[in-house]
Amino acid sequence: MYRLMAALFLLLAATLAASAQNLVIPSYWLNQRGSEMKLYSWGADGTFKGVYINHAAGFACQNTPYDLWGRAIGSHIKFMVIWTNWAADCKSKTVWQGRVRGGTIATRWILTGHDFPPLRGTDIFQQQP
């Protein structure tokens, strides 16, 4: 009897933990500036990896993929891009932090670099089919 109750408890806990994760991976996202985010792998601890392709007007490091790392716990999400790859080194990084709600991720970001003061803004990402 105790084994059955323990098994039911574990099943319920696993179901609740899975439903608490709102981010779908693999997935493809676009923000209001046309930048692309492709998420492709989960870690057991809620971490994820992907690539980010910047298309935002007025910013460098555009049109090539940059590695993205992040973590999602429930609806909370935080991810980062270091703007260095085989094509360019912009000597900067961006960190986004926000919430996942269905097919939308609403974030605030901060861009830091060696040659300029920190820049701040917001992005809304929409999941694409």
Structure description:
This protein is mostly beta strands and 129 residues long. It has a single domain (21-128), classed as Avidin-like (Lipocalin, Beta Barrel), CATH 2.40.128.30. Helices cover 15% and strands 54% of the residues. The protein has one helix spanning 2-20, and strands at 27-31, 36-42, 47-53, 65-73, 76-84, 89-101, 104-113, 119-128. Strands 1-2-3-4-5-6-7-8 form an eight-stranded antiparallel beta barrel. It starts with a helix and ends with a strand. 19% of the residues are buried.
Keywords, please?
eight-stranded antiparallel beta barrel, 129 residues, Lipocalin, mainly beta
What percent strand? over 45%
Write down the domain tally.
1
CATH architecture verdict: Beta Barrel
Count up the helices.
1
CATH class: Mainly Beta
Largest sheet: 8 strands, antiparallel, barrel
Strand-helix topology:
Blueprint: H1 2-20, E1 27-31, E2 36-42, E3 47-53, E4 65-73, E5 76-84, E6 89-101, E7 104-113, E8 119-128
Antiparallel strand pairs: 1-2, 1-8, 2-3, 3-4, 4-5, 5-6, 6-7, 7-8
Describe this structure in a few short sentences:
The chain is mainly beta and 129 residues long. The chain has a single domain, classed as Lipocalin (Beta Barrel). The protein contains one helix and eight strands, in the order H-E-E-E-E-E-E-E-E.
